[in-house]
Amino acid sequence: MPRVKRGFKARRRRNKVLARAKGFRGTRKNCFRIAISVVRRAYAYAHRDRRNKKRDFRRLWITRINAGARACGLKYSQFMCGLKKSGIDVDRSMLADIAMNDQPAFAKFVEAAKTALSN
Length: 119
Description:
Blueprint: H1 7-20, H2 32-71, H3 76-86, H4 92-101, H5 103-118
Helix pairs in contact: 1-2, 2-4, 3-5, 4-5
């Protein structure tokens, strides 16, 4: 039975892990044994935070819409209820952007929500 040293394949596997650990601090970037666990944990955090990013952005949009609506004299929940009743179908990311960058246009949305709520 010939002896197999596994030089190339093992080196390629190690280099893949170390390439993914590039930019980490200390021995985490160049010690293979430590890099394996750190890279694995990084993948777990990345997976979790890809889901959490959606949650965080929705929260930010709601905060911005609420601030814009309160400046015009409505609460967030009343504003969204009024928009739904008036048949205006704009998503929260667009509303948040309008509330931040175009106050007169957002005031028109608020007026439409107020008229729908009063009917």
